[in-house]
Design brief:
alpha/beta, 11-stranded mixed beta sheet, 7-stranded mixed beta sheet, 21 helices, about 20% strand
Length: about 775
């Protein structure tokens, strides 16, 4: 007896070979009907003998393509239509789409095999791809995911590709970016005024230039990279000079996992991240370097011995594997085994992705540019991740992850959450699904602000969100660029959400914990507080559904000069140390704080141009200043990062006691902590031991406060979020301290703990009407 079912499959099911999978499954089991891409996912009509239909439904769930992510299957009984075969129909458009867009995929093993097979039509073709690999988000122009809505729409398939595209038994069946050297785009190399055409010739020449110590601009999936030989000190130095990137670490690309193992210490978790389908940049300890932190912060900063200049004053390296056919072809053509592979831009600007603009922007940086003719639909940076003490954590969300839906919110109206001004990323909620964008950058840079606007327009238009259906949510800071931009967005309503509450909400949103009361620790550098002061060391009690009440915080300190204190640790230190008694002379060795400190201390004493702050990030800066970081930072978080790596160098020292960081009256008191640091430094104690004792003190103080507050308010879960919790040493200490308690510890995993995760928290609080 015939049975029929109407089926809707939701999740990441477009662009992953799901329709061909359904077609083959139906053909194998005698099922008639059809499958198509719809606005919300994949729609199927299946009819056949009852047992066959039931088996079809079972295999639909269990045997889906490896890159598919099914979140829901809706099945409804139908009357048989007496269809004779099973077909793939043209995509249907009925209402605004809410289907999940698949992030870009690394080249698969099958395509790699063909890439280096001389007998294959796509031999050494840098745009080789199939249903299981290749670009997705960076070529999609609209939904549903069909070739007509991709950047390949201008490249009609030749007969060979069209035959594969139409063959259900071929793994390129309905692979939308499908092409070959005859019908598809190709690469060329620009060296000054000279053009080297042809895929192989241009790639071989680019590899030669890299061996010669030149800087080459390389077109990738989501933008251009700047590449050079990572072992060539002169090339790395030239790249730093031209890119205006003084000390921030460079990312590295290595040929294979064996080279990665030789370069960094890979745990099982780190290696799994490195080889995952996202192919992110993975931070891991450099081999032979951790535990030998350098005390000199002068011009000759320490880096990995065999890679001078890559990660100054840092014992970690960011490493990634090749993920495009072009990367594999470069290494095959003789490119150095370890390449710097950094975003093609000047420091703090967004990655270049348009060919014409890239040629202009990179003219003064790169010695040559390897250009592919397939357009990039939108810029997407590489993702940065780490295997944390509490599980994998994303530090920069980009290629391989964005713009995936990270959770489902219990709401129907569309919500656009604009995030923060630093490390900006936005979140768009459509049909309850929270789509988190790629990393955009710091909005005080004009080019990043343009990218911010483009990303908003891109997601809103792609999901066809109508202004009358849209709620815009922004940070509570009245002068944030994102706040000011919210006023220009056409929408039904716009509301604000406090920065640090959004941090805590982002963790709970990932876990879909809407109503469970928790204790939230929100530690970062800066955020606008309810009282108009600068927060950053906050303890909250509450839930997403009922809101968060601030119940404790770091003892307030004066911040001289406002935002400038974030750039100069000694300036941040002035306000904290003003409250500490019996200090040594900060103008004498070993401190030598200099004129900037004296001027800031004078402002604090006169209460001129000072602001009250509870920022834990600035406390870390003050500690770094006391231990020798007395210059300005060249990238955000540098002083705290230096302090952490300094502390790693205490290995082999006797057991170290934590410095006192008492909690009483709802405040963590930093005065005993800083007094102990200054006293020990003045006595000549090893700065590495002092840095470690500071971290221990910070961990003990936070843990003591957490246990006390959790007991007082009867909660059993503690949430940690904010940029300070990127510090792995601090997290490891906290994990050890919390293990002796009955408290559950939750951290971010799908979005960064830094401000890159703020927009998700904003969206979650907005879904429950929790505004400022």
């Amino acid at each position: 007896m015939l049975s029929a079912r109407s089926i809707k499959v939701r999740g990441v099911v477009q662009g992953v070979g799901f329709r061909p999978f359904v077609f083959r499954l139906a053909s194998q089991h005698g099922i008639a009907g059809w499958v198509l891409n719809g606005d919300d996912g994949v729609e199927i009509f299946a009819e056949g003998p009852g047992p066959a239909v039931e088996l079809f439904l079972q295999l639909l769930r269990t045997d889906a393509p490896p890159t598919a992510q099914i979140t829901a299957i809706e099945v409804r009984a139908e009357s048989p239509a007496a269809l004779e075969d099973f077909t793939i129909r043209e995509s249907a458009r009925g209402h605004a789409p809410s289907v999940r867009i698949l992030p870009d995929l690394p080249v698969c093993d099958a395509c790699l095999g063909e890439l280096f097979d001389p007998a294959n039509r796509r031999y050494k073709y840098p745009y080789i791809n199939c249903t299981n690999c290749g670009p997705r988000y960076t070529v999609i122009l609209g939904l549903p995911y069909d070739r007509a809505f991709t950047a390949m729409k201008g490249w009609p398939m030749d007969e060979f590709c069209a035959r594969q595209y139409a063959d259900p038994s071929d793994r390129r069946f309905h692979a939308q970016p499908l092409c070959c050297p005859v019908c598809g785009p190709n690469f060329y190399l620009r060296v000054g005024d000279e053009i080297i055409s042809g895929n192989e010739a241009s790639i071989v020449k680019a590899a030669q230039l890299l061996r010669e110590g030149k800087i080459v601009g390389v077109k990738g999936l989501g933008g251009y990279h700047l590449a050079c030989d990572a072992t060539n000190f002169a090339a790395v130095g030239a790249l730093r000079t031209r890119k205006y990137r003084k000390e921030k670490p460079f990312a590295l690309m290595v040929r294979n996992i064996e080279d990665a193992r030789r370069l960094v210490e890979l745990s099982t978790e780190s290696e799994a991240l490195l080889t995952s389908i996202a192919r992110p940049i993975v931070l891991a300890p450099a081999r032979g370097l951790r535990g030998t932190a350098n005390l000199d912060v002068g011009p000759n900063l320490r880096a990995t011995p065999q890679l001078p200049g890559i990660a100054p004053d840092n014992d970690e390296l960011g490493v990634m594997l090749p993920y495009t056919p072009l990367h594999h072809l470069l290494f095959d053509a003789g490119a150095p085994h370890i390449l710097v592979m950094t975003s093609a831009n000047r420091s703090s600007e967004p990655i270049a992705y348009d060919d014409h603009a890239a040629a202009e922007q990179l003219a003064s940086i790169a010695d040559s540019i390897l250009i592919g003719k397939r357009p990039i639909a939108r810029r997407v940076d590489d993702s940065v991740v780490r295997a944390s003490h509490f599980g994998p954590v994303i530090l920069r969300r980009g290629r391989g992850y964005a713009p995936g839906s990270v959770t489902t919110l219990p709401t129907n109206p569309a919500i656009l959450a604009l995030g923060a001004d630093l490390k900006n990323a936005i979140t768009l909620v459509v049909g309850g699904q929270a789509f988190v964008s790629q990393h955009i950058g710091d909005l005080d840079h004009f080019e990043c602000l343009q990218a911010f606007r483009e990303t908003i327009d891109d997601l809103v238009s792609m999901y066809e969100v109508r202004p009358e259906d849209l709620l815009a949510v922004h940070d509570a800071h009245p002068q944030y660029v994102s706040t000011l931009h919210a006023a220009a967005i056409e929408c039904a309503d716009r509301r604000s959400v406090q920065h640090h509450r959004a941090h805590i909400a982002s963790v709970l949103a990932e876990r879909k914990e809407w109503r469970r009361p928790v204790l939230g620790l929100s530690f970062d550098g800066t955020g606008y507080g309810d009282d108009g002061t600068i927060w950053g060391g906050e303890f909250f009690i509450g839930s997403i559904a009922d809101g968060f009440q601030r119940v404790a915080h770091l003892r307030p300190a004066a911040l001289a000069g406002g935002d400038a204190a974030a750039r100069y640790p000694v300036q941040a230190a002035a306000g904290f140390l003003e409250q500490v008694e019996d200090l040594p002379d900060m103008s004498d060795a070993p401190f030598d704080f200099g004129d900037r400190y004296r001027a800031a201390a004078e402002l604090v004493r006169k209460n001129v141009r000072t602001f009250s702050t509870t920022s834990m990030g600035r406390l870390f800066d003050a500690a770094a200043a006391l231990l020798g970081f007395t210059r300005g930072v060249t990238f955000e978080g540098q002083a705290a990062q230096w302090l952490e790596h300094l502390a790693h160098g205490r290995r082999g020292s006797p057991a170290i006691e934590p410095y006192p960081f008492p909690f009483a009256g709802g405040e963590l008191d930093f005065r005993p902590l800083l007094h102990a640091i200054a006293a020990d430094r003045g006595r000549g104690r090893d700065p590495r031991e002092v840095a470690y004792a500071f971290h221990l003190g910070a961990a003990h103080g936070a843990a003591q406060a957490s246990v006390q507050l959790a007991e007082t308010h009867n909660v059993d879960a503690v949430v940690l979020s904010g940029g300070v919790f990127q510090n792995e040493l601090l997290l490891g200490m906290l994990k050890s301290l919390f293990e002796s308690t009955c408290l559950h510890i939750w951290t971010n995993h799908a979005v960064p703990p830094n401000d890159g995760g703020i927009s998700l928290g904003q969206a979650a609080l907005a879904a429950f009407g929790q505004f400022n």
